[in-house]
Amino acid sequence: MSSPVLFAEGLRKRFGGYYALDGFDLSVPAGTVCGLLGPNGAGKTTVLRILSTLMRPDGGRATVNGFDVARQAAEVRNHIGMIGQQSTVDDILTGRENLALWGRLYHLSAANARRRADELLEQFGLTAAGSKQVKHYSGGMRRRLDLASSFITAPSVMFLDEPTAGLDPRNRIEMWSAVRALALGGTTVLLTTQLLDEADQLADQIVLMDGGREIASGTPDELKARTGGDWIDVTVRDLAEIPAAAGVMARTAGGRLQTTPGENRVSAAVTNRQHALTDVTRALHAAGIDAEDVTLRRATLDEVFLLLTGQDLEGEEAS
Amino acid sequence: MSLTLPPITPAPMPRAPRSIVQRLRWLISDSWNVASRDLIHWIRQPVRLFSSVMYPVVSILIFGYVFGNAVMVVGGWNYREFLMPGLFGQSIVLGVGVTLVAIAEDTNRGVNNRFRTMPMSRAGYLAGRSIADLMNSTLDIVVLMLCGVAVGWTWHLGFGNVLIAFGLLMLLRVAMIWLGIYLGLIIKPENTSVVWTVLLPLTMFSDTFVSPQMMPAWLGTISEWNPLSATVGAIRELFGNPGWPGDSWVSTHPMVMAVAWPLAIIAVFWPLSVRRYRSMS
After folding, report:
1. Residue A135 CB: number of other CB atoms within 10 A?
2. Among B41, B116, B118, whose Cβ lies nearest the Cβ of A105?
3. What pLDDT is attached to residue B12?
4. Domain limits, chain B
5. Which of A52, A45, A1 is nearest to A20 (CA)?
6. Radius of gyration of chain B, Cα coordinates, nearest whole angstrom
7. The domain containing residue A218 runs over which residues?
8. Which of A163, A198, A223 is the endpoint of a domain?
9. Is the pLDDT reported for residue A127 higher than 70?
10. How far apart are CA A171 and CA A157, in angstroms?
């Protein structure tokens, strides 16, 4: 197996009295998308800043394509693109002018910079908006222009810091499409996110972070399997039927139970996937409970995070 | 409509420069490209050009006519002959704010961080900022000079001296650029208005509008030592405009001080800014 494109070992970074990173390891193979997932203050952005040479670690080491981020920073910068949490494109310039300017800053000739700008507008679905000033762009278009501008010299590694923060669902899906297009083309992507859905949709490998450390990592499916794998959701017609339904499910499904106050749904971790659905349906029927919906599904990343930290991603204590 | 993009493939990146000649080429092209962003802003935002022109007109009206008529000038000179070099100097020092706001905005918007992850010349960004600001100030001074001529100011000692005076003003501007860069890197954008509050009085505690000899002794001493007084005193000499310097060493050697002060400021704030820019994140 070839060596990882992104590698970190025992990274530590201290801000004032606390460790933003406290012994963080990472290994991302070429051409894959890795998602750093965790609540605010987990240390996700600090990892990105160290790997993109903006910040030096206080301890440990990290490499990009084999180059040390602290000792060979100039070499690392030849391989990376970085999109921060804020948009860095210029409002007053048009989309095409922005890309041409960034192209010049990446030392393309004026003619090449213009040609590349047109190519990128096409690739990122912005040709029609190319001659408009960026102040007239939607949030999603602006974000894609950001992405295009850091892809001028087509780096093999792209860092994205909360790429869809502040975008509405439609724009978010457009941005996801752009990230997928990069990954399909072979770019290695490291992104941070607070959104489970985003990590689930984009990442080949997810690293769950909390308090400056990794608390779990794996493919989305592997992580979901850690809560016991499958869950069964039963939706009843009447809130009053919840306790009875919960009793039935505890006997038949066999795993942990979960209810949310005020919602007419009971979830149970399933120990025997093959029979669970029929067993539960029959038992509910026998108990005279009117189930509106019975579904078998994989655990969500939310449930994984809750299980591992006792907190949900917004930092609320579990009840 | 949903958007589906075809795969986007990476390509080999350009190599970082190895030779000194290539490094220098990068520095020059990077700084010019950063500066060109500002030039497009000017063209697209006529409001900025308009305020560049309005500032001198309003200053001349306020200081030359509102206050100026109450000022008696020894020797029967027109006050506006004394005033104009002061306004040139004031415009240059207020430029600190222009530099600072631009730097603070780029820092806040993450543009600086973007640049710092790119294979760009490290000095290119700061040099580009300097080029844009020097061009901005050149325009300001030329407009101010034209307005001055319109209200009776002129130079009396030849055009060569005008060019030297212009050089001294730009030297002070370079010092103000490095001061502005440093302040812009450490001040948050929401606090930049404080700078104007400090800056405006600093341009007054000098011989810009009134000779320090007319001030209370302690304030007069501060004003004489103000770097702005040195440049303004020097260009008054070069233009042959009236001035009433005191008899302290600084007041009688404005030419020396007009070179020494900016160089000292640059010597302090250039290394500070570069160090700050390298280590920030």
Report:
1. 11
2. B118
3. 58
4. 44-66+79-279
5. A45
6. 22
7. 6-223
8. A223
9. yes
10. 23
How many degrees, rounded to 5, is the angle at CA A73 between CA A69 and CA A78? 110
By DSSP bridging, strand A205-210 and strand A33-37 are parallel
Where residue A99 sits, what CATH number does that domain have? 3.40.50.300
Flag whether residue A176 sits within 8 Å of chain B, measured between CB atoms: no
Do residues A267 and A233 make contact, with C-beta atoms less than 8 angstroms apart?
yes
In a domain, A303, yes or no: no
Nearest CA in chain A to B108: A86
pLDDT tens across B23-39, in order? 888 889 999 999 999 88
**Nearest CA distance, A240 vs chain B (angstrom):** 42
* Chain-chain contact of A88 with B110 (C-beta, under 8 angstroms): yes
Read off the pLDDT of residues B163-180 as tens digits, 9 standing for 90 and up. 999 999 999 999 999 999
Interface confidence: ipTM more than 0.85:
no
Q: Is A138 within the bounds of a domain?
A: yes
Chain B nearest-CA distance from A155, in A, is 6
- Å from A156 to nearest chain B CA? 6
Tell me how crowded residue B72 is: count the other CB atoms within 10 A of its CB. 7
- What are the DSSP calls for A184-244, one per residue? HTT-EEEEEES-HHHHHHH-SEEEEEETTEEEEEE-HHHHHHTTTSEEEEEEESSGGGHHH
* pLDDT recorded at residue B272: 93
- Which of these, B33, B73, B17, B10, lies nearest to B243 by C-alpha position? B73
Q: CB-CB: which of A92, A105, A156 is closest to B41?
A: A92
Sign of CA pseudo-dihedral A128, A131, A135, A136: negative
> What whole-number distance in Å separates Cα of residue B81 and Cα of residue B157?
14
Q: Is A8 helix (H, G, I), strand (E, B) or coil?
A: strand
| Contact with chain B for residue A103, Cβ under 8 A | no
Residues of chain A contacting residue B13, judged by C-beta atoms under 8 Å apart: 78-79, 153-156
